[in-house]
Amino acid sequence: MISAFLILLLVWVCASLMLLLGFHGRTMRALWLEPTLGLPVVIVESDDWGVGPRSDAEMLARIAATLAGIRDAVGRAPVMTLGLVVGHPDGPAILASGLARYSRRLLDEPSFAPIVATMRAGCDAGVFALQWHGLEHCWPDSLVARARRSDELKRWLADPEARSEALPSALQSRWLDTSELPSRPLERSEIDGAVAEEAAVLARLFGRVPSVAVPNTFVWNDDVERAWCKAGVTCIVTPGRRFEGRDASGALAQFTRTLRNGDSSAGGAVYVVRDDYFEPNRGHRAEQVWQAVAKKRLLGRPALFETHRENFIAAPEAASAALAELERALRGLIERHPDLRFMSTAELADHLSDPASPMRERVVGARLQVFLRRIALEASCARLLKYSGLGLALRLLLWAPHSGIRV
Questions:
Q1: CA 109, chain centre distance (Å)
Q2: Shared-domain flag, residues 348 and 366
Q3: What is d(CA 366, CA 300) in angstroms, rounded to the nearest whole number?
Q4: Residue 6 falls within a domain, yes or no?
Q5: Which of 193, 198, 199, 192 shows the shortest CA–CA distance to 227?
Q6: Residues 6+ away with beta carbon under 8 Å from 67
Q7: pLDDT (tens digit, 9 = 90+) per residue, 299-313?
Q8: Does residue 1 form part of some domain?
Q9: Cα angle vertex 212, ends 245, 268, to 5°?
């Protein structure tokens, strides 16, 4: 009786494993090959910084001072990346043309010099790192075309204090024609010209082109990647998936690719995954940051926290509260993970690309533990794991006291 049961159990396990390998073999291989970090890595990624009032420079200085007062075990301060949007639609000029011609303001205008100076100072202090986010947070022709038939967009253009964050979501996707929905892809020549123009502005402002690019609203394609890489980009920040369009409602279309830390782009850049969030103005708190880092540590992955300028440019009280919560989150992380490391996204990409990096876990047993955790939490495998019973078996294994594994 016992031997028959063991035989049935063995058959069930073998059959389930064959199904898992048959349906998800490529995913399992990708999970194994994805670099495993032996220490927790934390980066704060803040998008949309650029053209704005002098108060933006003052808040950037406050952020820099706060970060400089926090240190990890090797003396590094936390790094906040600044996703640069170095241009902004010149609404009054566009309206004055009868919506026949697009005009922009650039971050190199004298009135924006305090913002640029504060960014440079933060980079010199090691608490800021610049990232390429776009010349505008929209495709100019799409904005003008939509404004011709939208009173709301005309009012946005007429407002001298208008921020790109207030644009409709679909319009904030730079690398698409969203003048009509569903969106249409841009011509490769248009992309090449726009990327070259962006690179020239960034180099003029900061002396070089940032090596890390963050696609606006995470919508981009191979043509954009190749143009970025040609201009000097070596790392692309992703949410773990690539989106290439907007549907008829303006929502993101179905993603076209799954991406993992350390994968290579069409142009040879390294992908990194940013899929954790810290938006205090949406109710995010330090406790969520601590939970996210604990989970990422178990999975051997870095924790990149997406946040946006709007958290820190709100009304003074709300902006101060957001900064205080950021400080609480970072100090709490050091208490919970004394071996935590702060670094820039470009430095992380170097570690992910280098098999000999001291940040990489090379002990096979430790990598196997991480691999099992990754499988147990992989969304694409969830259905098969559930109905085959392998998911339960895997969780029992991961929770076994003698295994040393926790999920």
A1: 28
A2: no
A3: 10
A4: no
A5: 192
A6: 77, 78, 79, 80, 127, 330
A7: 999 999 999 999 999
A8: no
A9: 75
Residue 14 lies in a domain: no
Give domain status of residue 16, yes or no: no
Cβ-based neighbours of 105, under 8 Å, separated by 6 or more: 51, 87, 88, 89, 90
Structure tokens at 97: 């043309």
Tell me the pLDDT tens digit for each residue of 214-258.
Answer: 999 999 999 999 999 999 999 999 999 999 999 999 999 999 999
Cis amide leading into 182 (omega within 30): yes
Q: Which residues contact 142 (CB under 8 A, 6 or more apart)?
A: 171, 176, 177, 178, 179
DSSP state of 111: G
- Cα–Cα distance measured from residue 289 to residue 279, given in angstroms and rounded to the nearest whole number: 10
Give me the DSSP letters along 1-35. -HHHHHHHHHHHHHHHHHHHHHHHHHHHHHHHHS-
pLDDT at 39: 97
Distance CA 300, CA 298 (A): 6
Q: Which residues contact 346 (CB under 8 A, 6 or more apart)?
A: 129, 211, 212, 234, 235
Residue carrying the six token digits 């109905």: 387
> Which of 239, 61, 207 has the alpha carbon at shortest distance from 130?
207
Using only the alpha carbons of the chain, give its radius of gyration: 23
Contact residues for 82 (Cβ-Cβ < 8 A; gap 6+) = 46, 49, 60, 119, 122, 128, 129, 130, 131
The answer on 247 and 206 residing in a single domain is yes
Long-range contact pairs involving 201-206 (C-beta distance under 8 Å, separation at least 24): 201/86, 201/87, 201/106, 201/107, 201/108, 201/135, 202/84, 202/86, 202/132, 204/108, 205/86, 205/107, 205/108, 205/116, 206/116, 206/119, 206/120, 206/130
What amino acid is encoded at 154 in this protein? Answer: K
Q: If you count them, how many residues does the chain have?
A: 407
Rounded to 10 deg, the angle between the 390-399 and 364-376 helix axes is: 130
Kindly give the parts of the chain with pLDDT less than 70.
1-2, 5-6, 8-13, 15-17, 19-20, 22-24, 384, 387, 389, 391, 393, 396-407
Q: Dihedrals φ, ψ of 177, to 5°?
A: -90, 105
Q: Which residues pair with 128 in a beta bridge?
A: 80
Range of the domain at 206: 41-360
The token duo for 234 is: 């070596």
- Number of independent structural domains in the chain: 2
In this predicted structure, what is the pLDDT of residue 397? 66
Residue 1 has a pLDDT of 52
**CATH number of the domain encompassing residue 149:** 3.20.20.370
